[in-house]
Amino acid sequence: VLAAPRDATGVARLVAQTLCQLHRPAEVVVADPAGLDLGELTAASVTVHSGPPTAPWVADWTDLTEDRPDTLLLDLLCAQEFSGADAVGHTPAADDYVFVPTLTPLLVRRSLLDTGTPPETWSRAGHRLFAVRGKEPS
C-alpha cells in the first residue's frame, strides 16, 4: 500500500483502513513518515517503511479521504488472479470485470509502476488492464 498521511487524522484513517482489510497488505510505504506515529501498524505485524515499494503488487491509498471496504485488497487480488492483468482498477463507465484500454489503477504490478510510464499509455504498451466496479464500504 502506498499512503500519504499528513497528520494524525490521516494516520488514524490509514491504520483503520489497513487493519480492517480481510487481506492485509504486506507493507505500507509512506513517503515522509517523519513525525507520524505508525506504531499501531508495526505492532499489528504490517511492515512500514519509506522509499520504493518492495511487494510485487502495489495499491494506491494516497487519498485517505476515500472510503475503502474491508474487502478491497482481497477483491483486487482476486480480480488480478482471475484476469492475469498487470493493473486492476476503475473506469468512469463503472465497467465490471472486463479488460479496458484505460483505467484508474487501484492495484498495479510493481514492475509496471517502476517504469514510471503514465497509466494512460499502459494498454498501448501491451499491458493488460482489468476493470472492476467499486463496492460501497461496509
Question: Layout of SSEs?
Answer:
Elements: E1 2-3, H1 8-19, E2 27-30, H2 39-43, E3 47-49, E4 57-61, H3 72-83, E5 87-90, E6 98-99, E7 104-109, H4 110-113, E8 129-131
Parallel strand pairs: 1-2, 1-4, 2-3, 5-8
Antiparallel strand pairs: 4-7, 5-7, 6-8
Shape field? globular
Please give the share of residues in helix. 10-25%
**N-end to C-end Cα span:** 20 Å
Number of domains: 2
Q: How many β strands by DSSP?
A: 8
Strand content: 15-25%
Order of helices and strands: EHEHEEHEEEHE
How many helices?
Answer: 4
Main sheet, how many strands, which sense, barrel?
8 strands, mixed
Return the average pLDDT rounded to an integer. Answer: 93
Oligomeric category: single chain
The unreliable regions are: none
**Rg, nearest Å:** 15 Å
Strand order, biggest sheet? Answer: 3-2-1-4-7-5-8-6
Overall SS class: alpha/beta
